[in-house]
Specification:
Helix content is 25%, strand content 24%. Helix 16 crosses helix 17 (745-762). The strands form eight sheets. An eleven-stranded mixed beta sheet has the order 32-31-30-33-34-38-37-36-22-1-35, with helices on both faces. Among the domains are: 290-401, paz domain (Beta Complex); 504-638, Rossmann fold (3-Layer(aba) Sandwich), CATH 3.40.50; 645-781 and 829-886, 2-Layer Sandwich (Nucleotidyltransferase, domain 5). The radius of gyration is 31 Å and the shape is globular. By secondary structure, the chain is an alpha+beta fold. Belongs to the argonaute family. Ago subfamily. This is Protein argonaute 2-like.
């Protein structure tokens, strides 16, 4: 065995791993991606193996290819130091905790194969649950504590055990109790096989800059070791851990409570290996009797009026896991529904020892066998049947099992508000919670990690960040002259009082479609609202005329796609009467939020070719100046106007020639949706040098596929649109890519970038390209070293960190671009993958921060660079089209190609 610890051939750490669910893979994920969502592994945090130079001798390099493969592109290397541009320095604490380890430690990897001893009646044995596997492993270790010391091993919950000492290989018989009084113990065969050994010297060499590829397998093993302690004491949900109990103050009062947990992972950084930990909050059903849950959960519920609430009861309990309290058992059952008969009416067949069959009443059965007198005999039982085996249990004998997540979107308004408040603690509270978790007995640090030679510093990492000054912005005076403005020094916001937009469009042809007209309680008062909107637009130099007409409609039209289509086509035709051109936009007023919103957008933007702006009647009737301003800004941008522009040239690129900014993102269906396609969107600027008007292209692709299949064609279409509007193709492209983890950087560089360049080359077009990835799904948090006395206490807008806690060898930086008024601000992590423009740290940070000020929807910087922000909105719009096209009732309008944008809309900012 060599020193690297790779023992044997073809029997590495991959053995025994099952393909993970979900994730953001492309349908055929790598092994690391497949395990990305398993509790024991955080594979998505680690980049693909790449060629790196020693850290002590790094210089800025661009467009590298792998040392092992001349055609394989690798991410840009970081300079030896970060940037220097700053308005002022700021002392920060980061929730990274320095990790040290013994490089001489040898970690052994064992494959665990567990099989039931009972003969299998079916072709394939039933898959054992994680709970059962954990019980079997626990029993094996408790039966043989000398050979299998629990404190020196870590278990992934399925097929893999890791140990710092040699474990005896072989097959062992293990018996565990069934958890039922009337059942025998279950027997299993547990086979232990050594499959690999890992030496931590490789990780030390990589962190010191002396190894060319990241030892991902070792990092994953150590990550699992750090999860072992919380896994033994807490409930795991994905990568998060939650305690079994909740604080009394976190009771959401509907049978649901907010549980405070955490998520953590190991990260290679410039300071070495670090443990990154952040707290989280999730809603769970409380462990409580089923009847008590129904009383809390269903408003007005009374056990004496059960029939009245039967439908709501079934909706609340179907699919929920329960256990029974009339006998000692750990067994969990899934509620299939309610019985049709009441408890007193249910009987079942029973066979006596003599072989005689008789009917037994359920109420009598519980009285005779358990001495329990059923109180509620005139209500149904819970149907806990499984595999054609009938099992009916009275509600009063059932309790909800702990650890059942409750979807936050199903919470009522008050509970949802409470959960949001709990989930958004101010910085000083969040910082304290993180430190408390690190020092707790159930946190990631414990005997197991120490036995593996791993020690963690309990203090957050200190970093000196930099606050970049905000850019100067350009607006117009009330007489149309351009003027420079400086933003507020603290919040970096600005207002339009006494000012106008840079380029206000003339709006002569527009229509109001009032869907609230038939709602007596929430109808629009059209006259005052129209005049206030026109007045506000004109005050911003957006010349808005009276609407062509006011069209009354009803909210129930949304439930019928055919009628909604007919209405919208009628409005478009009527607006064109007299030889007029189609309306510039429809202002659609709704009495409340409605699922029909997606049908409206789908029909208008893919079939009729109309831009829409929606608003609620209550907001319109009570419209204040800020609401009207926001409405006017969105309308102006959708029609091709320009609200705010950067006053100064973009750094490093705003010399000669045209530059196009691109944003790309993929929207995936929910984890519960296993069939719907994902939607890719690419947006691109169509003006220069303002670079604040965008066009979008949206395409469906395979379910949960992260790679944008048609990115070359989509970008080429946007480039051609740019050329039609500007008379020239842009010579420089800057692409911001969203939604990819570090394990998928190779896909972006060696698949998407290649396809992009190939599509351009076929059209004899060879622009220079820079690609940055923007990540919001990370756990790194920045805190002021000294808690602020006034205000929310978040780091100021423009805070940049590009040393100590960033990637050890690649060019990356954290940027907090927005003012955090609620909760704790979360910065965006930008990672430069490809650069043909020779950007420095200062160039990239200033460029990214400046673009955060160019959102057309608000008068403040946004938290995510605008091209990515818009791409996210456009991709979500594709999701709405799909839902609209597949949800309309049978017999209505024939389903059409739901993602093809109408030519009258595709080059407008319809998505904002």
């Amino acid at each position: 065995m060599d020193r690297s610890g790779n023992r044997g051939s073809g029997r590495g750490y991959r053995r025994g791993h099952r393909r993970g669910r979900g994730g953001r893979g492309d349908g055929s994920p790598s092994w690391a991606e497949a395990d990305a969502r398993r509790p024991g592994y955080d594979a998505s945090l680690y980049p693909e193996a790449v060629a790196v130079r020693p850290q002590f001798n790094l210089v800025p390099e661009f467009n590298q290819v792998s040392l092992g493969n001349e055609d394989k592109a690798c991410p840009v290397r970081r300079p030896s130091n970060g940037g220097s541009l700053a308005a002022r320095p700021v002392n920060l604490l980061v929730n990274h905790f320095r990790v040290t380890f013994n490089p001489e430690t040898m970690i052994r990897h064992y494959d665990v194969d567990i099989k039931a001893e009972a003969p299998v009646r079916h072709r394939h044995p039933a898959r054992l649950s994680k709970d059962t596997l954990s019980q079997i492993k626990q029993k094996l270790f408790s039966d043989n504590p000398t050979q299998f010391p629990l404190s020196r091993t870590a278990y992934d919950g399925e097929k893999n055990i890791f140990s710092t000492i040699q474990l005896p290989c072989g097959t062992y018989n293990v018996k565990i109790g069934s958890g039922r009084e009337d059942s025998e113990d279950s027997s299993f065969q547990c086979s232990i096989t050594l499959v690999n050994e890992f030496n931590l010297l490789k990780l030390r060499d990589y962190l010191a800059g002396g190894l060319v590829s990241i030892p991902r397998d070792i990092l994953q093993v150590m990550d699992l070791v750090m999860k072992e302690n919380p896994a033994r004491h807490m409930m795991s949900v994905g990568r998060h851990f939650y305690p079994p109990e909740y604080h009394k103050t976190d009771d959401l009062k509907c049978g649901v409570a907010a549980f405070r947990g955490f998520q953590h992972s190991l990260k290679p950084t410039c300071q070495g290996l670090a443990l990154c930990l952040d707290c989280s909050v999730m809603a769970f059903r409380k462990r409580m009797p089923v009847i008590d849950f129904l009383v809390e959960h269903i408003s007005g519920f009374s056990i004496g009026q059960f029939a009245r609430y039967r439908r709501e009861v079934e909706q609340a309990l179907k699919g929920v896991k329960v256990t029974v309290n009339h006998r000692r058992t750990k067994q969990k059952y899934t509620v299939e529904g309610l019985t049709k008969e009441t408890t007193r009416s249910i009987s079942f067949s029973s066979e006596s020892p003599e072989g005689k069959t008789s009917k037994v009443n359920l109420v009598n059965y519980f009285q005779e066998k358990y001495g329990i007198d059923i109180k509620h005999k005139d209500i149904p039982c819970l149907d806990l049947s499984k595999s054609n085996k009938k099992q009916y249990v009275p509600l009063e004998l059932c309790e909800l099992v702990e650890g059942q997540r409750y979807p936050k979107e199903k919470l009522e308004r008050d509970a949802s508000t409470s959960l949001k408040k709990i989930s958004m603690p101010p910085p000083h509270s969040r910082k304290k919670s993180i430190c408390d978790i690190m020092r707790s007995n159930i946190g990631p640090c414990g005997d197991v990690s120490r036995n593996f030679g791993i020690e963690v510093d309990m203090n957050m990492t200190k970093v000196v960040g930099r606050v970049i000054g905000p850019p100067e912005l350009k607006l117009a005076t009330l007489d149309g002259k351009m003027m420079k403005i400086e933003v507020d020094k603290v919040k970096c916001q600005w207002n339009l009082m006494g000012k106008a937009v840079v380029d206000g469009k003339t709006i002569e042809r527009w229509v109001i479609v009032d869907f609230s007209a038939s709602d007596r309680n929430r109808w629009l008062n059209p006259g005052p609202f129209i005049q206030k909107l026109i007045s506000k637009c004109r005050s911003l130099r957006i010349r808005m005329e009276e609407p062509l007409f006011y069209q009354r409609a009803a909210m129930n039209v949304f439930s019928d796609v055919a009628k909604l289509t007919e209405l919208l086509e009628y409005v478009a035709r009527r607006a064109c009467d007299g030889g007029r051109r189609p309306p510039q936009f429809l202002l659609c007023v709704m009495s409340g939020k409605d699922p029909g919103y997606k049908q409206l957008k789908w029909i208008c933007e893919t079939q009729v070719g109309l831009v829409t702006q929606c608003c609620l009647s209550a907001n319109a009737n009570n419209a204040n100046d800020q609401y009207l301003t926001n409405l006017a800004l969105k309308i102006n941008a959708k029609l091709g106007g320009s609200n705010t522009e950067l006053s100064n040239p973009l750094p490093h690129i705003n010399d000669e020639g045209h530059v196009m900014l691109l944003g790309a993102d993929v929207n995936h269906p929910t984890s519960r949706d296993t069939k719907s396609p994902s939607f890719a969107a690419v947006v691109g600027t169509v003006n220069w040098p303002a670079a604040n008007r965008y066009a979008a292209r949206v395409r469906p692709q395979h379910h949960r596929q992260e790679k944008i299949v048609d990115i070359g064609e989509m970008c080429l279409q946007l480039v051609e649109t740019y050329a039609r509007l500007n008379g020239v193709r842009p010579g420089k492209l800057i692409l911001f890519r969203d939604g990819v983890s570090e394990s998928q950087f190779d896909m972006v560089l060696n698949e998407e970038l290649r396809e992009l360049k190939k599509a351009f080359a076929e059209k004899d077009y060879n622009p220079t390209i820079t690609i940055l990835v923007a990540q919001k799904r990370h756990q790194t948090r920045l805190f002021l070293e000294r808690d602020a006395i006034n205000g929310p206490g978040n780091v100021p807008p423009g805070t940049v960190v590009d040393t100590t806690v960033v990637h050890p060898s690649e060019l990356s930086f954290y940027l907090c671009s927005h003012y955090g008024s609620l909760g704790t601000s979360k910065s965006t992590y930008y990672h430069v993958l490809w650069d043909e423009h020779g950007f420095s740290y200062d160039h990239l940070e200033e460029l990214t921060y400046s673009l955060c000020f160019t959102s057309a929807r608000c008068t403040k910087p946004v938290s995510l660079v605008v091209p990515v922000y818009y791409a996210d909105l456009a991709a979500f719009r594709g999701r709405l089209y799909h839902e609209a096209a597949t949800e309309h009732p049978p017999g209505s309008t024939e389903e059409r190609f739901y993602d093809k944008l109408h030519t009258d809309v595709e080059n407008k900012m319809f998505f904002i």
